[in-house]
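Example 3.2
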Amino acid sequence: MSEHGHGPARQPAITRDSYDELYRSAPAVWTGRPNGQLVAEATGLPPGTALDAGAGEGGDALWLAARGWRVTAVDFSPVALGRGAAKAAELLLTDRIDWRHEDLEVWTPPEASFDLVTAHYLHSAWTDRAAMFRRLAAAVAPGGTLLVVGHQHGEQWGHGHAHAHEAGALYTAQDVAAVLDPDEWTDVVTETRDRDPGAAHRTGNPVPDTVLVARRRAV
């Protein structure tokens, strides 16, 4: 999902229905702009196949497709996916994006199939998160890139700001790195990065990003 909201809004409790309710609450929940960490990491990559896990209304998927990627955009909200598909048709990108209604808690993507697997802000409090990230990592093709971005958590940030999230939904880049087999991955980077100031202002959420970037070893 995009990091760029239209204005401060407290997020509902995370359930499978709450995201459909969120998307129905406004004609567009996000601005449609790609997430800043995706732009930073993918701009220099040669276009290939990409999996956008938790695609939301499709800002990231559309940005990738416009740059020559073939994208599988997965989300468990059919409302969000419908909006993404409509925008893709408007931008003449329909043939570059496969919109899939899947639940990442149980869905297993095809192994070693994507040159880029990207996941932004998967606020999944109910799932076996380690298993989910293992499945996403396994979907990266040899030589491909895994990018996982979340909201940094810690007492200094609390949950009183307008864009608060449940503590159990948050994770660190180190949590994701812990599921990666070091024999299969190289150039593993775990960092805390400042959010785009504009996005922080629009969402009322100043919490930094926790970012994992890793390359799967080529065969």
